[in-house]
């Protein structure tokens, strides 16, 4: 039976993905900061058929806590998989007013999960199996006026995942990069965005991509086309655009 650790397990997409895994009988390690909320998610997953659902403390801004998680996972037998849903996106105006917020965005959306996955990768490689799923964002495909700090963090994470995929493929471990467009979650509350999708739809896309061993997916798929067009806009023109 397979096991999954979900970083940032209280996020809407992580919850939807956890529910899917639970119905398949997976063992779940739900990692995050809100223990009470994690316990509620774990109870729900057990009711849905999870072989087990254990809560683990994880704070992307506190790497000192990572070794204990790695040690717990090392004790779990069988195929081990990981998915990182961690990230934070303050309004760009708030960051402009207080640049020190950048450090938290980078830690949550890039360096924290990357550090953890870097520590976890040898364990999966030693077993010669497993999947790592990293949640990036279409925001990382090109710096935009409205969220370029968050976009920069997700761009860095996507590049990291690309290199990790290259490394781990040699040892039988697959790495999937997921680039969602706007998703109807608390992070986008009140925002009006095109092609907005649901956490359940993103979770379904992830599940299919894991089974098919895809490398990079966009969710919803239309964002692959949209971002291709956006990347092709000449810089002199792009600088005058307000989106």
From TrEMBL:
InterPro entries: NAD(P)-bd_dom_sf, SDR_fam. GO terms for cellular component: membrane. This is SDR family oxidoreductase. The keyword Cytoplasm does not apply. Gene3D superfamilies: NAD(P)-binding Rossmann-like Domain (3.40.50.720). GO terms for molecular function: oxidoreductase activity. It comes from the Bacteria. SUPFAM superfamilies: NAD(P)-binding Rossmann-fold domains. It comes from Paenirhodobacter hankyongi. Keywords: Oxidoreductase. Belongs to the short-chain dehydrogenases/reductases (SDR) family.
